[in-house]
Amino acid sequence: MSRVTRVTHARAERAALCDLLDDLGPDAPTLCEGWTTADLAAHLVLRERRLDAAGGIAIPALAGYTASVQDRIKSGRSYREVVDAVRQGPPKWTPYGFIPGLDNTVNTLEFLVHHEDVRRAQPGWEPRELPDDLSETVWKRLASGGRFMFRRAPVGVVLRHTDGRRAGAKMAEPHVVVTGDPAELLMYAFGRQAHARVTCEGDPMSIARLNAAQLGA
User: Fold this and answer.
1) What is the C-alpha to C-alpha distance for residues 101 and 33, in angstroms, rounded to an integer?
2) What are the start and end residues of each CATH 3.30.1050.20 domain in the chain?
3) Cα angle 96-101-105, degrees, rounded to a multiple of 5
4) What are the backbone dihedrals phi and psi of residue 33, each rounded to the nearest 5 degrees, phi first?
5) CB-side exposure of 2: number of CA atoms within 13 Å?
6) Those residues with Cβ within 8 angstroms of residue 99's Cβ, 6 or more apart along the chain or in another chain
7) What CA–CA distances, in Å, run from 102 to 11, 65, 120, 184?
8) SS (H, E, C) 28-97
């Protein structure tokens, strides 16, 4: 009997993103500054298949090597091959592949955000309705990880779910209350403030500073 692979939210977002990448081709814009869809696809291959170069995603001193490897991935294969590598998921020999549950734990938010990076860079985009359990997962991650995501915020931040729940993301004064559905709060927290459908309450200067801040996990 064949083993049934459970379709997790990480896998569902991965598949939906790859379908969209295929539809748009390699030259479509994304919300990642300076990146086309081809660049984003190469980035996703790098972070899962070139662990030697992934450090530069978070460590500035290593960013040059990471960028050079990403460029080689982009130029060394056809766009369709790069997208297919993303679609296949992490190889079995990587931590994502052999540690049970790690792919879903790490990649759910990663692929949700990058899926939206592509969607929201296209004309006429509108927010999509997430499955209830995925939306709740996003809210819980924001509530538990908001202090890390907003560590560079220049003012205090309180996140408020549209159902009224609140989570402190940075304890400081003055503070801004950011309200929205979990997916919108996630995009805001990941530095996509201009493309997140949220409302902000606080003094105008604090809101302006937060909206212009370099945020992100």
Assistant:
1) 31
2) 132-212
3) 80
4) -55, 125
5) 3
6) none
7) 12, 26, 27, 24
8) CECCCCCCEHHHHHHHHHHHHHCCCCHHHHCCHHHHHHHHHHHHHHHHHCCHHHHHHHHHHCCCCCCHHH
Rg for the chain, CA atoms, rounded: 18
pLDDT tens digit sequence for 106-149 = 889 999 999 999 999 999 999 999 999 999 999 999 999 999 99
Report d(CA 193, CA 30) in Å as an integer. 14
Beta bridge partners of 180: 161
State the Cα torsion 80-130-89-85 to the nearest 10°.
10
Q: State whether the Cα torsion 153-155-156-160 is positive or negative.
A: negative
Report the alpha-carbon distance of residue 180 to residue 192 in Å, rounded.
14
CATH 3.30.1050.20 fits 132-212, yes or no: yes
CA distance 88 to 100: 17
Query: What is the C-alpha to C-alpha distance for residues 117 and 40, in angstroms, rounded to an integer?
Result: 9
Q: Output phi, psi for 73, to 5 deg.
A: -65, -45
Give the 3-state secondary structure of residue 130: coil
| pLDDT tens string 5-31 | 577 999 999 999 999 999 999 999 999
pTM, 2 dp: 0.90
Q: Which amino acid is at 75?
A: S
